[in-house]
Amino acid sequence: MPTIAMPELQFGEVFANIDLFLEACGLTLALWAVALAAGLSGGLLVGLARLSPRRWIAWPARGYVELFRNTPVLVQLIWFYYALPVLSGIQLPAFAAAALALSLNASAYCAEIYRGGIQSVAAGQWEAGRALGMGRLRLLRRIILPLAVRRMVPAFTNRAVELAKNTSVASIITVHELMYTARLFSSQNYIPMETFTVVAMIYFLLIYPFTLASYALERRFAAGRA
Amino acid sequence: MGYVWDFFAVARNADILLAGLGQTMLLSVCGIAVGVAIGGVLAAMRLSGRRTLSWPALAFTEFYRNTPPLVHFFWFFYGLPMAFGLTLPPFAAALAALGVQSAAFFAEVFRGGILSVETGQWEAGRALGMGRARLMRRIILPQAARRMAAPFVERSFELVKTTTLAAALAFHETIYSAMVIVTQTYRPLEVYTVVAGLFFVVLFSASQLAEWLEARGRRAGAR
Amino acid sequence: MTVAGDVVLQVEDLHKSFGSTEVLKGIDLSVRRGERIAILGSSGSGKSTLLRCLNVLEMPTRGRLILDGEAVGKPAAGGATRYREAELNRLRARVGMVFQQFNLFPHMTALENVMEGPLSVLGRSRAEARRTAQRHLERVGLGGKADAHPARLSGGQQQRVAIARALAMDPEVLLFDEPTSSLDPELVGEVLGVINDLSEDGRTMLLVTHELGFAYHFATRILFLHEGRILEDGPPEQVLKSPREERTRRFLDRFTAFRF
Ligand SMILES: Nc1ncnc2c1ncn2[C@@H]1O[C@H](COP(=O)(O)OP(=O)(O)OP(=O)(O)O)[C@@H](O)[C@H]1O
Ligand SMILES: [Mg+2]
């Protein structure tokens, strides 16, 4: 039997360089914010397109959503990393590819949340609005979306969490965010166990508030429905 | 614009890609098995009603649900073995990371399904004098299983997509195979377009199949 | 062993609290074999809680429960009682319960619902369980619905299956908690009819109900519960027509439409 040495952990060295990791959080947060904002706005458009009675609008929207939901986010990131220079003809930083891929990814998922939320509003609300003589868009803005949003918020919070985790994949296409910094640091200092443990904790601290918020919102929603 | 697509470069290396896809499937199936096993234990701990069991399980699931899987892939491949002066093959490290991470999600699927069964069902079973284990097996689980099916399938699809991160550990799954082909052909756009297409075909048809089965199950359940 | 008239179920000084609110404030009750007891009382008076303590679906906070002369559970500190899981399961197998919401197992047919207890608790053979289940379904007038799932049955039919399910255990005591309260008015009669037919078995039954007319004809004894205490206990004639307490009179006055 091989003897297994008890590890001597050197967390001190990681904490001595903690500013390195905290700086890298900046890019992680930037990716997260860009993709989330794009997802919330683009997702609404795509979600509405999916609900359109016109096939030539609804079907491409469905194709887009299915495409992004049924392929790994890593493939999406790598694809845009290579495709962007070819399609645009200019060399763009990896960050642009990552931001674009994550934004499109988030939009696809958010579209489904919008669609589900809007469909969950009872048909009676649509009828009541139409009976008042409201047009489709006004009805949507003044009646349906405000009703639907309450049910969608927990799902969006959940999506924000998934998105935050996805930003780490950008490290594979050399975006110098938190995960990339961690890999670099651990290979330079030969303390991967300590590095990845601390980095996991940093991610947890960034992400967990969103999860707690979604719990609180779900509870409130459940109480409001009763 | 003058980009000339050349998919023949990919076609010539199709065998590499398909072998990679096979490894992706293998890792997925093993990951689901490990995740379901650990997830089942975690769910049982959380539902045990004992704090000494439920709190550690809660901490575990919350930690793994709220941290990126990629960190865990690296932790299991580089971190854990190096701390103990060992090496783990990429497959084992990827499987460990995937299993542990997905276990946290599967645990929530199981727990949610069980909690969704009305308390009246528990009471009716207890009123007949059924013990906890038998009640669980005969009354609660059959009903919970139906409600778990859809989220279980969804989690499994997420897991399949997550297996691609094993490429970062040089495990020869689909993406890593794609990287190999790219270094030989320098046709990244074509290669990754095909890879995306492969995943899409596999996952989309599987999800359509799952939806169809689910609808059939629902109809059968509403007899 | 099964002499009509001996005490089958007894509770002494039964208390039950949820958190800081005491719902049952000391119940003493002695049930003789073959008695049919209707329990009345306004909403929140603790009727369901009392019934659920009798088969220990709720753990009493204090007091003793004696079934067939045997005390259930072991005394613990502070007047409380400790119950063992296996002991409770044995007790519940002998004390049947019919719920307001039926609580049928939706993934099983009517027949399988009725078979479940004998099969998995009493350890009967499948063939025997099937035979007795079929017999009990016929008894409640649902012999033809054996293969239907609960979702395909009306509320009244579901409740009759639930009664058959409880009967299949051949319980010494059968508890009913407002068995008709969640039924459409036109379905109430068929369920009460089935319960009334059970009288001829001489089985001990306790029934929480708001159907005063039915209670009058069906019960051999009526309890009136008020704020966690038994305020009235006697034959239907006496309790319903000349109650001792002002509270009871006020409660009965609210049922103006009720005729004997
Ligand atoms: N599990 C519980 N947790 C907290 N309070 C409870 C619980 N069950 C019952 N109670 C409270 O105990 C009191 C008595 O409830 P119980 O259900 O026994 O009344 P009841 O006489 O059956 O009324 P009803 O006619 O409405 O069924 C009520 O105030 C109720 O709110
Ligand atoms: Mg009640």
Automatic annotation (TrEMBL), chain B:
Membrane topology, record value: Multi-pass membrane protein
TM stretches of this protein: 25-45, 192-213
Coiled coil residues, start to end: none
Location(s), subcellular: Cell inner membrane; Cell membrane
Keyword tags: Amino-acid transport, Cell membrane, Membrane, Transmembrane, Transmembrane helix, Transport
ABC transmembrane type-1 domain sequence ranges: 21-210
UniProt similarity note: Belongs to the binding-protein-dependent transport system permease family. HisMQ subfamily.
Known role: Part of the binding-protein-dependent transport system for glutamine; probably responsible for the translocation of the substrate across the membrane.
Protein name, UniProt field: Amino acid ABC transporter permease
